[in-house]
Amino acid sequence: MAEKKVTGPASYFPSIEKKYGKPISHWKSLLKKMPNAKHSEMVAMLKNDHEMGHGHANAIVAHYRAENGL
After folding, report:
1. Of 1, 42, 61, 65, whose CB count within 10 A is highest?
2. CA 64 to CA 10: how far, in whole Å?
3. Domain spans of the chain?
């Protein structure tokens, strides 16, 4: 049986962890501190405060929000 290929926002996680040197759980913990923020505000925080690229920031935020029913 073949391994299931990771798709969607999570497919970016290995490259995000490699590029920024922190686990995805670190980035999710930062987003958790913004319970009332909109998607775009969360993306902006990752980009502005942590110099993350838009695609990577968007992938983390999309996954986080889906995982938490936001």
Report:
1. 61
2. 10
3. 10-67
CA atoms within 13 A on the CB side of 61: 21
Count other Cβ atoms within 10 Å, centred on residue 23.
12
Q: Is a pLDDT exceeding 80 seen at residue 26?
A: yes
* CB-facing half-sphere around the CA of 37: CA atoms within 13 A: 18
* CA dihedral (8, 10, 15, 55) positive or negative: positive
Question: pLDDT value at position 1?
Answer: 56
Distances in Å between the Cα of 60 and the Cα atoms of 1, 3, 42, 57 are 29, 23, 9, 5
